[in-house]
Structure formats: C-alpha cells, structure tokens
Amino acid sequence: MKQYDANFIFVHSVRDEAWAKTIERMQGEIARIGGKVLSTEDRGKKSFARPQQKKESGTYLTIRFELDPSKVNELRARYALLEEIFRLQILAIDPIVEMKLAKQAAEKKARAEAEAAAAAEQAADQPVEA
Questions:
Q1: Range of the domain at 120
Q2: Maximum CA pair distance of the chain?
Q3: Could you tell me the CATH number of the domain that includes residue 52?
Q4: Mean residue pLDDT across the chain
C-alpha cells in the first residue's frame, strides 16, 4: 500500500449538507476499491487566477489515502465518471520528503518559541519609564 493525495476542485456551489455528502462520496470511492482514507482537508472556496471554462472559482478538497498502486488508474476512471468534479490530481506521497517537512516544521516552531521567550525576557528586564 502506498500513500496518495487526491486534490479535487468542484465548481458547483454546494450547501453544507450537500458538501458533506460529496465528501463522503469521494471517500466512498476510495474505500470501494480497497483503499483506506487517512485524512480529509476541506480547503474552502478559492478564486481561479483566470477563468477556466467560464468558471471564476471552485471549492477545493484534499483527501490523503492508502491504496495499492495498481488500482490508482481504476480510481481515476471512477472519478472521471462523476460530473461534479471539475479537476482531479492524484499525487504519490514520498515518505522521505514528508519526514523532512515535519522536521523543518518542528525546527521552525522551536525557533519561534525561543525567540518569543527571549523577547519576553528582554521586555521584563527593561525598566518601566514614567
């Protein structure tokens, strides 16, 4: 099993109830062919840089999942049949890159905390002027 990110763009404006059903449907397609959904990120509505097929904006969704590499094309074919999907991109996740990104994020957070602590200490050492 290999990890993938599926990035979707939907152009139809959907209500909260219909959006939840759409997300469940996208996750259901992955489960139907033997995959396992790891996480789902609703990235919200965003404007396109330039109009695409007379559309100005779209709602973005990212689903991270595990799937046998031989079944990725089958998943693409299943999603191609769904009219509500405007764009789809499926990317393989490189575990080494993911580990490096997590390490960089942890280091950045630690630096920010150290700088905040140093700034607070410096502010406490300075006398208050009247």
A1: 94-130
A2: 73
A3: 3.30.70.60
A4: 89
